[in-house]
Amino acid sequence: MFCPGDLIRVPSNVGLYKTSDNFVRFFIKTEKPRMGIFVEYENSNECTVNVDGQNWTVELQYIRIMGKQNDKINSNN
């Protein structure tokens, strides 16, 4: 489980989007892995993350917690 403020990793080729009135109004696909901050859960399948200073909705199955291991940052399940 993620907590607000957790440092997360979003892999490449993952869709990030913003909605308004239940319609997707803006969508991007990551070209390379991105670091971000977990903001909140939206439902059981999606959450809000902050990447590059903007809040985005992303599917939970794609994000990973960042953890320090052997002096390097690696993703953990």
What would you say this structure looks like, in words?
With 77 residues, the protein is mainly beta. It has a single domain, classed as Roll (SH3 type barrels). The protein is built from no helices and eight strands. A six-stranded antiparallel β-sheet has the order 6-5-4-1-7-8, with no helix packed on it. The chain is globular and about 40 Å long.
Low-confidence region ranges = none
Order of helices and strands: EEEEEEEE
Helical amount: under 10%
Specify the structural class. Answer: mainly beta
**CATH topology (level 3) name:** SH3 type barrels
Gross CATH architecture: Roll
Rg: 12 Å
Averaging pLDDT over every residue, what do you get? 87
| Major sheet: arrangement of strands | 6-5-4-1-7-8
Give the SSE map.
Blueprint: E1 7-10, E2 15-20, E3 23-29, E4 34-41, E5 46-51, E6 54-59, E7 64-69, E8 72-76
Antiparallel strand pairs: 1-4, 1-7, 2-3, 4-5, 5-6, 7-8
